[in-house]
Amino acid sequence: MKMIDIWINCPNHQTAEEIAKALLDSRQIACSNIFPEVRSSYRWKGRIESESEVPLVVKTREEFFSLVEESVGKLHPYETPSIIGVPVEMVNEDDLAWVYEETEQESDRGT
Question: Which strand (E) or helix (H) includes residue 9?
């Protein structure tokens, strides 16, 4: 069993909350953390841009990265949203078990 944190930059709190709720409702993630607004600078289509963004971090099973990535791609307003999976190398066993319990899919239950 392995866990990951997935970092997703959003244009505002509303988008972060909508994505987090959809991922929680579908049991793709166990929890989310929405951070205060940050200032992001980046290259985009040959120009340097600077915008306010809201970091969203979600916790899930490592094998759910592609599922979360696909769902976020459908919900996110950016043409190319930043979706970065960071493996959690150390986690207490109770927290890891909780993540797996909360992300249990119907296929895990055999129904």
Answer: strand 3-10
